[in-house]
């Protein structure tokens, strides 16, 4: 899930809380919660559509804390400043990275961590990354809600392959599969046991038949064998 928000939208705690509940509801309905990437869409007072774009942000692993998120954002500042200086020297209008570095340094990290902490404290929701960009120019002829291929997406597309969503709710389908397997195992065990018992009873019956038809034995012994044979036949029926 890529959640795009402007700076103003990030500051609206009530709307964020509502959106988080919607994400949780969708996860329960689907039985699966995908990792969430927050995409902060910044603004510029002048046109920078021709600025070279790249992935700008930090990517996280499961179980992140506000402190570790702050460390990741702090780690961006020097890299943004260096790249931003290179772009501004090449074209002084291209100051997005420099301004972003300055914003993060001047309280932006603390502000962002406070805004995103609700997402860190709501399992099974997982904050997988925070990225930044200016609004991307939409080419003519692009369909509504279409995906705009841009270098800004590269980092997300690579990182998402390493992240796994989480199953939500009771796994009914998997439980049913294991139930069927257990029933099949019980049926198989019962069949094997029944086969063994029947085989033993058949062997005993053969012995009784042999004893009942043994003319060398006494009459009383043959009568007892015939009686036992009749009882054995009744059990087999």
Automatic annotation (TrEMBL):
Q: What is this protein called?
A: Type VI secretion protein VasK
The organism is: Photorhabdus luminescens subsp. mexicana
Q: What is the lineage of its organism?
A: Bacteria, Pseudomonadati, Pseudomonadota, Gammaproteobacteria, Enterobacterales
